[in-house]
Amino acid sequence: MTSPPTAPTAPPRRGRPGHDQAAVLGTAIDLFIRQGYDATSMADLAAALGLSKSSLYHHVPSKERLLELALDEALGELTAVVEAATAEGAAGTSYERLRRVVEDGVRLLVDHQPAVTLLLRVHGNTDVERAALERRRWVDDRLADLVAAAVAEGALRADLDPGLVSRLLFGMVNSLVEWYDVDGPVDVDQLAAAVVATALDGLAVGAPRSAPG
Amino acid sequence: MTSPPTAPTAPPRRGRPGHDQAAVLGTAIDLFIRQGYDATSMADLAAALGLSKSSLYHHVPSKERLLELALDEALGELTAVVEAATAEGAAGTSYERLRRVVEDGVRLLVDHQPAVTLLLRVHGNTDVERAALERRRWVDDRLADLVAAAVAEGALRADLDPGLVSRLLFGMVNSLVEWYDVDGPVDVDQLAAAVVATALDGLAVGAPRSAPG
After folding, report:
1. Which residue in chain A has the smallest CA separation from B140?
2. A22 lies within 8 A of chain B by CB
3. Which alpha helices (DSSP H) does chain B contain, by range?
């Protein structure tokens, strides 16, 4: 297994760290999602926070640094989930680990919905975005390998290309960012169970309808 | 069945219609996708087309009108596919019609990938976007009804909420816009078959692995 690409070295942070930066980051992510990263200026962000532009620059050096922090949040979590499922000596069959990574992926997405939403909208327009896409590709490749291992085990149907199946499976997971409302009627356990039931029980050769473990 | 909401009455078009407007629209959609609708100006579009701004305004009255044309393209096709599958007297069981609408949805998405991509990124910031979201909601409601009818028929597992299943199913279809390459190794027939196999064969109670019709 190859090592995941790491985040580029962060520039030194200016201003007060901690809570303040987290609040700035949360508002920035919301604005980036709502009106697009390119269309959002530091002046827009300062106005949304009720800060002057110079106070805002006290917290963060640039708009790009905010994007980088948001993408790091999503990618750090994603990488950890995928590493746990694909590390040598991880418990269970490949199929069981695939089910777990789908469930954990759903939970991760719900817990970090704004940051993941932003990650999924990144298209490589800047160095920061291209670095994020490279880390995302590492995640996608590991997931495709896990699908292929579950096929080789005989647990998943072998008549479909594992790369294609992996994209469809995690495409379904990713699509949750567009509509899932954590305060809505479907709780995260029901959601994770529905995704596994919808996508995996269809792929499993003769699998029982309920999860094996 | 309720009637689909129709597009708002179009303002009269200025300039030469036909091929020229189609070319302008195609370039506009590409720019809107690449850099975001809000961040794209008519000056950007004129530059991308190698036109002066005044020549561009000869073709289209506004940036918003281009967005409306793009969304109409996607929504017109989507509405037609869903109407064909849900009209009174449509052939086949609800389950068969659901399979067909998934396959037709995949083909539609591939044939109109840029316009559908744009539609899926619309978040209701303007009247044009809100009208598009309303039409999209009509489509989503019809699809959820079709899933519910297939459950009632006994063809789909009944332990999951039909609205949730519909969102997951078409979330998988919609996620194709993010990665599918019509010039890549997977042709549209393989793609449609893989989506149906991945999502529906998992939902079908005791369904055979191959499509029933």
Report:
1. A179
2. no
3. 19-35, 42-49, 53-59, 63-86, 94-111, 113-121, 127-152, 162-175, 188-195, 201-203
